[in-house]
Hints:
CATH superfamily of the largest domain: Medium-chain alcohol dehydrogenases, catalytic domain
Strand content: 25-35%
GO molecular function: mRNA 3'-UTR AU-rich region binding; NADPH binding; quinone reductase (NADPH) activity; zinc ion binding
Number of helices: 10
Largest sheet: 7 strands, mixed
Distance between the termini: 33 Å
Keywords: NADP, Oxidoreductase
Domain Enoyl reductase (ER): 40-353
Order of helices and strands: HEEEHEEEEEHHEHEHEHEHEEHEHE
Shape: globular
Pfam families: ADH_N, ADH_zinc_N
Structural class: alpha/beta
Helix content: 25-40%
Protein name: Probable quinone oxidoreductase
Amino acid sequence: MIARLTGSYLPTRSISRLVEKVKMTPIPAVQKAVLIRETGGLDVLRYEQDFPVPKIGNNEILIKNKYAGINYIESYFRKGIYPSKKPYVLGREASGVVVAKGDAVTKFDVNDKVAYLSSNTFAQYTKISEAGTVSKVPQDSTDEQLKLYAGSLVQALTSLAFVREAYPVKKGDYILLYAAAGGAGLAFNQFLKKAGAHTIAVASTDEKLQLAKEYGAEFLINSSKDDVLARVLEITNGQGVEAAFDSVGKDTFETSLKALKRKGTLVSFGNASGPVPPVAINILTPKNIKLLRPSLFGYIATHEEWESYSSELFDLLHSGALKILISKTYPLEEYNQAAEQLESRKTVGKLMLEISQD
Length: 358
């Protein structure tokens, strides 16, 4: 019957567009979002209920977000460590449903369920290019599965890419891993164990270390009471580690360098304790050390790279070969509480936001 609404038959393409319009939910002009209008402490975080919904271009889709993952990187933008144009909506990963698409979009349709990496995800709506880091997920995905997709993209993909490319981990390697019970740390533990490495996990409490062990760590160091360097040298018989994955930054940089063996690799990728100060390049000379400051986006810059890594990640999640510990989910309006918990090192695993659909 739908083909005869005007009294004459419509072309198939017109039918498709009409059905799509019937399915579309009206897009509001404003939305709820968490953002900053200035840099500073937790007090600059704003939850606004009348922030403009982004307008999409011909090659873009608009996603109504259901879940967004919380990452330490949000604090870097809030503090001004990473620059941003204000006002700036926080967030780097999410999952949800496509609610509108540009005229030139061919890869996505309205009502597709998707997971994606992008800025501005702490909001009810986010726009992204169809050529960007966004993928369809099964249409029958449950809310819990959508939460899992949104909670795995930044940290699990970082871990997967870094053990493949930042330092290609080999069987038998000794690897030093900081923040071993956080969202990224638990993923690192699993990928390092799968590669056959001996993971030396560092965390601030015995409880966190036991969790790291459950996820694959072999050796445990409590940074609150142990001498990290002394323990690393003891574990490695004075040789040091092949590589260190250090997300802490300023406070651990020197220790990580000293813990490396000759021709070792330091992968510094976070600023949890503050940015690493400028270093003289000749500090790398005595042991022929390699120093990297990589980002995930440098490894998924092309469509082929994104497809390769994201499809492998989703396969691992579907099969149960990769476990993501989601320790707590907050409503969007309580992000400031989640940020305080994360930055005070009181959390393990992954923190999430559930975004209001109203």
